[in-house]
Amino acid sequence: MRGSFECAYQLLMSYFVEVRLVDLDFEFGIQTASCKDKRFTRCFWCFGPPKKTYKLLRPVVVIDGIFLKGRYRGTLLTTIAIDPSNHIFPLTFSITDSKTAKSWTYFLKMFGYNFHGYDTRFVVISDRNPKIINVVPMVFLFAINTFCAFHISNNIKTTLKSTRIVFRMAAEVLTSINFDKHMNVIRNTDPVGLQYILGIPKETWYNLCIPMSRNVVTLS
């Protein structure tokens, strides 16, 4: 809020240390270009106690990133989960240079180490970023990588707003009868949009087709 971006990054380590004084379970890590070159590369942090907190949440994790608009740009990566009361619960954060495969690997490995472990079955929801699709199974052998229905609906090649709405309804229904009903609406009104949808395996976005159903969380 005050001072320059350069000063803020220089104080990052001091800030993390101060947070740990009031939260003994606070975890963080900072990477620089090299031991001699102290230029900031990426950092990670999460509030504790991580593993105890995660046991209280649903086995569904949403990962995403957003571009920063400050002087040094970069990307903020996040993971969130849903608590038993359907409230969004932020888990981990990372500031990195960009959304590269190396950055996603670092971020997910840090998440796994602090929260999840690498041998547990759970659902990861993300957009269809190829880097995420490739990295998730490398880091978490037992994770089920699914796609956010909201992201897919926004990318449907259509001019009909109703197609996007009906698609999200189809993704969330809990019976095959209702699913077929919504898909038939799209089939009868928007054949072009339907072809785009059919090009994405429904095992990655439709509740009942996902081995570990993600109807414990709704992203719409």
Automatic annotation (TrEMBL):
Q: Which InterPro entries match?
A: MULE_transposase_dom (IPR018289)
Alphabetically sorted, this entry's keywords are: Membrane, Transmembrane, Transmembrane helix
Where in this chain does the record put each MULE transposase domain?
Answer: 60-155
Residues forming coiled coils: none
Keyword Transmembrane among record annotations? yes
Q: Does the keyword Acetylation apply?
A: no
Q: Known Pfam families for this protein? A: MULE (PF10551)
Report TM segments: 132-152
Q: From the Swiss-Prot or TrEMBL record, give the protein name.
A: MULE transposase domain-containing protein
Organism of origin is Kingdonia uniflora
Q: What is the lineage of its organism?
A: Eukaryota, Viridiplantae, Streptophyta, Embryophyta, Tracheophyta
